[in-house]
From TrEMBL:
Lineage: Bacteria, Bacillati, Actinomycetota, Actinomycetes, Kitasatosporales
Coiled-coil zones: none
UniProt organism field: Streptomyces rectiviolaceus
Protein name (database record): Anti-sigma factor antagonist
Organism domain of life: Bacteria
Pfam families on file: STAS_2
Sequence similarity: Belongs to the anti-sigma-factor antagonist family.
Ranges where the STAS domain occurs: 1-107
UniProt cross-references to InterPro entries, sorted A to Z: Anti-sigma_ant, MlaB-like_STAS, STAS_dom, STAS_dom_sf
Length: 107
């Protein structure tokens, strides 16, 4: 997993899973704490995430809210969009451009 960027936009790549969760949490929390305004997470380079990785995203979302910021997901890959819809988290998280639920293949 790799994360690059600043307090306004981060690009997350690789696998966001139980092995990378602690490092990702540290980077995301620092970005939330040190910045202002929206924090955009570009997920275009993300290969996969598991429940732990999704928990890291939700934790950053909650922390951003407490800091008066908003976490915005950008370029969410289709397989991850399906997971967000299945867990109904697409209704809670800010997703740039939204998710076209009707266009996602059924699983």
């Amino acid at each position: 997993m790799h994360i690059r960027g600043d307090q306004a936009q981060l690009v997350v790549g690789g696998r966001l899973d139980v092995r990378s969760a602690a490092d990702a949490r540290t980077v995301l929390h620092s970005a939330v704490d040190d910045g202002a305004g929206d924090l955009v997470l570009d997920l275009s380079e993300l290969d996969s995430w598991d429940a732990t990785g999704l928990g890291v995203i939700m934790g950053a979302h909650r922390r951003a809210g407490r800091c008066g910021r908003r976490l915005v997901l950008r370029s969410v890959p289709p397989q991850m969009q399906r997971l967000l819809v299945a867990t109904r988290l697409h209704r809670i998280l800010a997703i740039e451009g939204g998710i076209g639920v009707e266009s996602l293949p059924r699983v």
